[in-house]
């Protein structure tokens, strides 16, 4: 009977079916919201793939201690569907989902992966990306018919791409205006402006799956670097470089149907959003993978709150006795045993960053020891509340549990499998 | 439900819904109608707490109900030839065709149980909850389905 399962795996949903349902859903929704949108079909087709809202978990941007700068700036992810901005996670990384993307062969692919520059006293902003391009996205409200006509004319001439919409027939129209900027731009700072990733060359054959085409296009930015430089009112300059990676970013649905974006990869059967993950090279603190010979993250007990139960770390299944390595240089602040965590130890890496290793068979270091990144500190076991040999691994910033996966760079994340 | 939720639900569980509908209705256009109907109904649902398992169960249950609704208007139950299924990922051999045919000829009650158990990997208890019948009934149907399949396949089925 396994043959039956194999046979069934060969049967896929017909390609057009998803977009058919989506357009039917839109027709159904249309009278309810009474919104009028042009360019909806094209956008819808690309969207079928992608994600809409982006809500990052409860994260806070902790000011780095000892920062000598008076002014500083940061990036926030922008969720086009809800108009919310989302702060980076505690490790300074942003998850940019492909929200309202638009693609055509003439204009290229406006991926909808948007971010904003935030900060005080900013005069000018320079952005550059070493692959693909960028675009500016602005919302213009209360447009007159004349202004709308002018926008369409500009669109005809290929100067911009716009999405015009209004509450009803008679009210003034609003428009989302997207202007391609090329690979770099320097301009006067406007806190309202969003910047997005743009792929100049977009091609999707008539037979190609639009979703796949959009993802392939977003993959242009995998491994690319985004450099953001701002000048402040006092004449100083600050620059940050972000390393981009693309992939299936995991999402969770909360009780009100809202989506929460987790900066981690999705397993095969998990809900996900395709998008760009941007990690700051200077602000991020990267950890080493803590278990030798296992690159698996348990799906059964993921980080976060599932069904009201909170898991403050990840579980890494491994063979009994596998070597547990220090994720970074640090000091052993606690070694102990309790009923829940079994044998555990805590490492302090400075600047409020701590890692916890639990369910160990035994711990080979003592309180007060100094450990080097990659040094052996314990062996994998199944102590405490455990059903099989694994390492329970936690990362804490200023005492708050963080998603450990966000602390591994893309080279490590790419090798992880979820089971 | 938001459109984003719908997109994701289709990406993750669309296949399961479509295959169940295809197995039950034995007709590609019917399966597509059921698929569309199920996901449009999902959109009308209140946005409450939906974990993945609950979502999948809801989708499959709704799909089964829709299939049953469709069947009320059908006098004769068709058997779909595997060749008529579009978008097969790989061409299938004669053995697979025989198997598909045999499953298609099972009485509906047995077929649903066999499909959910073998294609979707549901346990008998889970199927019982989905169909709102006792687990023992599910096990009986599964056993009878297996025996019948063995019969139809001339004893070459090796589980």
Terminal Cα separation of chain A, in Å? 24 Å
> What is the mean predicted local confidence, pLDDT of chain B?
80
| Total helical elements of chain A | 6
Gyration radius from CA atoms of chain B, angstroms: 16 Å
- Overall shape of chain B: globular
Largest sheet of chain A: 9 strands, antiparallel
Structural class of chain A: mainly beta
Domain module count of chain A: 2
Distance between the termini of chain B: 41 Å
* Major sheet size, sense and barrel closure of chain B: none
**Largest binding interface between chains:** A-B, 48 and 51 residues
Poorly predicted ranges of chain B: none
| Helical coverage of chain A, percent range | 10-25%
Order of helices and strands of chain B: HHHHHHH
This entry's quaternary arrangement is heterodimer
Instruction: Give the beta-strand count of chain A.
Output: 29
Query: What is the overall pLDDT average of chain A?
Result: 77
Task: Tell me what you see in this structure.
The complex is a heterodimer of chains A (419) and B (159). Chain A has 419 residues and is mainly β. Chain A folds into two domains: 15-280, no CATH class; 296-418, Glucose Permease (Domain IIA). Helix content of chain A is 14%, strand content 43%. Chain A has six helices and 29 strands. In chain A, the strands form five sheets. In chain A, strands 1, 2, 3, 5, 6, 8, 9, 10 and 12 form a nine-stranded antiparallel beta sheet that branches. In chain A, strand 27 and strand 28 (400-402) form a beta hairpin. Residues 31-69 of chain A have low confidence and may be disordered. Chain B is mainly α and 159 residues long. Helix content of chain B is 69%, strand content 0%. In chain B, helix 2 crosses helix 3, helix 5 crosses helix 7 (135-152) and helix 6 crosses helix 7. The chains are: A mainly beta (419), B mainly alpha (159). Chains A and B meet through helix 1 and helix 2 of A and helix 1, helix 2, helix 4 and helix 5 of B.
């Amino acid at each position: 009977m396994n043959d039956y399962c194999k046979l069934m795996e060969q049967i896929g949903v017909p390609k057009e079916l998803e977009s058919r349902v989506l357009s039917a859903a839109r027709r159904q929704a249309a009278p309810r919201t009474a919104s009028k949108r042009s360019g909806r079909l094209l956008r819808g087709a690309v969207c079928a793939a992608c994600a809409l809202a982006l809500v990052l978990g409860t994260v806070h941007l902790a000011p780095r201690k000892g920062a000598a700068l008076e002014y500083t700036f940061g990036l926030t992810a922008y969720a086009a569907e809800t108009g919310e901005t989302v702060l980076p996670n505690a490790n300074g990384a942003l998850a940019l989902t492909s929200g309202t993307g638009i693609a055509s062969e003439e204009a290229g692919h406006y991926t909808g992966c948007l971010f904003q520059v935030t900060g005080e006293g900013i005069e000018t902003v320079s952005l550059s990306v070493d692959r693909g391009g960028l675009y500016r996205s602005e919302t213009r409200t209360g447009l007159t018919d004349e202004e709308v006509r002018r926008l369409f004319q500009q669109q005809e001439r290929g100067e911009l791409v716009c999405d015009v919409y209004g509450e009803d027939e008679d009210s003034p129209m609003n428009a989302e205006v997207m202007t391609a900027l090329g690979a770099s731009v320097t301009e006067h700072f406007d806190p309202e402006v969003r910047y997005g990733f743009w792929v100049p060359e977009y091609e999707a054959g008539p037979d190609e799956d639009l979703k796949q085409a959009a993802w392939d296009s977003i993959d242009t930015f995998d491994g690319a670097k985004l450099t953001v430089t701002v000048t402040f009112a006092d004449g100083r300059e600050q620059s940050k470089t972000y390393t981009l990676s693309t992939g299936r970013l995991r999402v969770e649905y909360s009780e009100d149907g809202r989506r929460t974006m987790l900066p981690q990869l999705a397993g095969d059967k998990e809900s996900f959003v395709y998008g760009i993950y941007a990690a700051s090279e200077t602000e991020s603190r990267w950890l080493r993978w803590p278990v030798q010979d296992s690159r698996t993250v348990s799906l059964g007990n993921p980080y976060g709150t599932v069904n009201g139960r909170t898991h403050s770390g990840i579980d890494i299944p491994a063979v009994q006795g596998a070597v547990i390595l220090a994720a970074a240089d640090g000091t052993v602040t606690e070694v102990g045993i309790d009923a829940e965590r079994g044998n555990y130890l805590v490492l302090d890496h400075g600047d409020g960053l701590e890692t916890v290793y639990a369910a160990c068979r035994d711990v080979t270091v003592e309180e007060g020891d100094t450990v080097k990144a990659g040094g052996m500190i314990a062996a994998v076991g199944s102590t405490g509340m455990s059903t099989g040999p694994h390492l329970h691994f936690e990362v804490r910033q200023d005492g708050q549990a963080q998603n450990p996966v966000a602390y591994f760079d893309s080279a490590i994340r790419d090798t992880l499998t979820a089971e | 439900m938001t459109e984003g939720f719908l997109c994701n639900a289709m990406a993750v569980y669309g296949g399961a819904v479509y295959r169940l509908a295809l197995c039950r209705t034995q007709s590609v256009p019917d399966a597509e109608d059921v698929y569309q109907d199920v996901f449009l109904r999902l959109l009308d649902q209140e946005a409450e707490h939906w974990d993945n398992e609950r979502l999948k169960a809801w989708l499959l249950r709704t799909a089964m109900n829709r299939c049953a609704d469709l069947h009320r208007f059908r006098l004769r139950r068709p058997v779909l030839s595997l060749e008529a299924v579009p978008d097969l990922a790989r061409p299938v051999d004669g053995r697979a065709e025989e198997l598909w045919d045999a499953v298609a000829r099972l009485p509906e009650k047995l077929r649903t149980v066999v499909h959910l158990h073998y294609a979707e990997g549901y346990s008998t208890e889970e199927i019982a909850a989905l169909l709102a019948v006792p687990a023992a009934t599910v096990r009986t149907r599964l056993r009878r389905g297996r025996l019948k399949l063995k019969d139809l396949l001339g004893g070459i089925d090796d589980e």
